[in-house]
Every structure is written in structure tokens, then in C-alpha cells.
Input
Amino acid sequence: MSVKIREYRGTPYSRKDLEEGRVPAFRDKPRARYAWACGPAMGRFLAELKEGRIIGRRCRRCGRVLVPPRMFCEWCFRPTDEWVYVRDTGTVLTFSASYLGPAAERLKEPIIIAVIQLDGASPGIGILHKLGEVKQEEVHVGMRVKAVWKPPEEREGAITDILYFKPIREGQGGGE
Amino acid sequence: MASVKRRVAVIGAGITLFRRRMRETGRELSFYAAKMALETAGITIRDVDAVVCGSAPDAFDGVHMKGEYLLDGMGGHNKPYVRVYVGGGTGVFTPIAAWWHVASGHFDIVLAIAEEKMSSCHPHPQKAFTTIFDPIYTRPLGPNLVWIFALEMQRYMSVHGVKKEQIALISVKNKRNALDHPCAQLPAKITVQDVLNSEVMVWPVQKLDISPPSDGAAAVVLAAEHVAKRLTDDPVWIEGVGWCLDSTYWTNRDLYYPKYVEYAARMAYKMAGIKNPPKEIDVAEPYDPFDYKEAHHAEGLMLARKGEYLKGIKDEDDIFARYGRDGDLPICPSGGLLGVGNPIAAAGLMKVCEIFWQLRGEAGKRQVKNDPRTGVAQAWGDLMQVGTVIVMRA
Output
């Protein structure tokens, strides 16, 4: 806003105006469908998930183990060198509890999510996943967690082959 | 960095109302903002050599080639015209692109205009936002956009021991500042308790921590030095520009600090000859789609040390004394996205307009009290990976 300007333009309307037909609106629903080729890195990552394993790629120049795997290192800008299995246990780097679904619809029970650094991945290299068998107020940065997998016959080669990560309780150790 | 050929000034600015839903189409909103910018610059569309359009994802409108779709309303008819896009960083990137059009010596007068109409995506633009996530390893988890902010906010709070009560003060400040902005969508006098009692969206993010979806447009006119001096006695110079992007692998970086914002700021400061940002900058508009983002970005802009933006700030008096319009360093005097609204690209450009009006002394009730000479505007976005920065001087 400038003091030299007197009038600002624009005509607001409410959702009710729309629903009750006071605002002319043309409606349509685009129906696009996709089949994303996964490429060699993500393709292998998904195939390994189906087998109950998590795989990354190492860049020998910077030494990082990247999860999810990539066929090139964006730091060194060269091909990565080798496949490396990481463990299905890890540490919570940050977390959240979502009362919103994908379309901003309200959820009664929150989805607890976290960025998890898997054991064997480089420091700061995390993956996004859900947490389960835990209350929101028990979750903390630094909490140790382990993957809970779908039964082998139900896995389909997707990130959702891991149902969620659950806390590693005292006495349960790291677990393989 | 190579030397810049020509100095570039902002000589006019325009803006529409920001509202949740607007009857006008994106083209019509663009036309309003463009006309106002041209009129305040004292020129017509015939004087404009080229037009730069900024607008965020096509999915909001459900129209591909959105730049081309908006072209006529933006004054781009039969002119060199291009749309630029870096997610939420677009609003500040649009005048950056216009700047290099002019600085290169190729054009004398360029119109930079940003538009967003989020209401077309019905019932809520969140659904369109979900398509920014990786289709293979993130979307199957059913994410919504607020997840990433909540995860970043939690990390910022955990690493530095910052409290939600402190962060809520930013929302209190900006919504109150917006009471003096005639275009504002959500101006309000609220308290920290109101923020903490508001609906939990994605913990630790609550309803009053977030800016709203909006419709709106904003525009600025840029001119080469010899033209600007002919057209106005009050040019505001673009003295530094910077931008930087990290990858979309947002879970692979430490979210407590936006390094890419720092790199963008360093680029802009170097160009503007700024060595001590908090001392040399008089007014700042860091990007505030969420309240904690103002702190995060002020730190990325090196206006405060890492984790110290809210250090020692306990109540309203503290935050207004430090960052209010008559405070030590006025931050978001416009009211920011939290108060004025968040039509993505237009919101970023609104911040550039605000710095322009502040440096010209035209901001009326919002005018900061330190007779500002130097200001900075910044935007941010995509998958928490882009920083765009402009330094301006009167």
C-alpha cells in the first residue's frame, strides 16, 4: 500500500456464495493418469523393500551413503559406486503429528510421522515415514525406532511395504 | 561474480486486495495490479519493453501453460514475455528475473508481475500441493503440505530450545501489523494464548501459526538508470539479488537451518556491498508463510545468529521492541503472509512492494520509524529448498 493510492481492487466471495449459486463457476475434474518409471536406483530400492531390506548407494568420493539410493551424487556430480544395505532400525531426527489428511480433511486420530536416520546411512540422511505403537507425547528427537513390515506375501515393492516404525523399547536392543 | 552492466530501479508498484476467493479471474487480477504499477510509475503499457510473469503451480488453476494463459492480463501481448517459477520463492524471483532483463542492457523498462488464484482448486488447494511430493517414495504415505513445515519447525525448536510461545509472538506481531494494510486478508489483534488455543493442524503447527490460501496479484515496474532518473525523483535501486536451490531430497538435510537462504543472501549482500546485515539493513520482509519461518529466514538472512532470532523475547512488548515498526530492526511491517495473506507468488512480490513503499516513505500508517535507506525482501519454497533475496536502497 502506498499513501498515494486510494483504491485497491478485487471482489471477494464466500464458499456459501459458490454453493448457493450466487457466483457463476464452471466445474471440471481433470482425470490424468500416470505410470512413473522408477529408474535403476528407485527400482532396486523398491525391489529390495519387497524382500524386507532397505538399500542405499555409496559415493566413494564424499563417502556418503544415500537413502533412497541415487545413481549419481549431487555433491560430487559423478556416478555413485556401490549398493549398500542399511538396517531397518534408526533414530528420529524430527517428528510431527498430523490431524490433517492429504486434502486438508480433519482426522480424529493423528498420523505420527518422522524423519528417520537409518543405521548405516550417513549422518543427516533421513527418510520420511510413519510411526506406530507409540503415543504422540512419547515421541522425541533422538528416539530409536525399528521398521514394522507387511507380511512378505502382501508386499508389493513400495515404500508402504514398511507399515510404520515403532519405538525400540529398553531391553529389545537394536534388532536385526 | 561478473560485473553488472547497468543499475536498475523500481519506479512503480501495484497490488490488489488479497482474499480467500475472488470473483475476478487471474487475468483480471493481474490487470488490476499491472495497471496500478504502470500508473504509479507514470507510464503506459506502450513504454514497457518486456514482461516477466511469476505464478506458482499450474495445478492451482488446473491450466497448463499458466504463464501464457495469464499473458494478456499481464500486459505481455506481442512483447518479449516469460514466466519464471521457483515454487514459493517465485514472488521475489520474478523481479530478480526482470532485473537481469534490464541490467543486461537488453531492455529499458520491464514489468514484473505475480499472480495466484488458489481458490480455483476446490474445495481446498491442499490437494494440489500434494503433487509436489516425489510420486514414488513419498506420495504413497499420503502426505499433506503442512507435514514438511511441522517437521522443520519441530527440528528448529529441538535444536535451539526455542519455545512455541515465543514463535507464536511472530503471528501476533504480523497479524497486528496487517491491521494497517488496506489489502490484508487476515489482520487481527490476537494474543499468544489465541495461537496456542487454535486448532492443531499438524503438531506443532496450529491454525494461527499458518498463513491462509489466497487470491491476489502484485506488480512492480523496473527501469534502467537513465530512464528511471527521467521518470521519477524517488527511484528505489535494486542493489543486490541472490537465489539458490538445494535438491528435493528434503529429508537428506538438517532442517534446523536454511543454508540455501544464506547462500542466496550472501550473493545479494556481496553485490550490494553489505558486510554486517543487522547493522546495514533498516527494514526486512523475510518470508513468513508460517510464524516460525520468519525466525528461520531472518537467521538465514544473517539478521540474527542461528537460533537467536527470538533469544530473550518473552512477550509482546519484547517482540515489538525488537522487530516492530519502531523497534530495533523492523521485520515484516507489511503484516507479512500471516496477516496480509498468501497468494503464493503475489505474496512474495507484495514484500518487494512493501520495501519499495517503505524506502520511499509512502507506507503511511505502516511506515517504519528509522528513516530506512536499505531494505531486504526474501521468499522461499518448493520442497523447503529455494531461497530468493533482493536488497533495495533509496
Notes: The mean pLDDT of chain A is 93. Chain A touches chain B through 57 residues (CB under 8 Å). Strands of chain A lie at 54-58, 65-66, 72-73, 78-79, 82-86, 89-100, 106-118, 127-131, 144-149, 162-167.
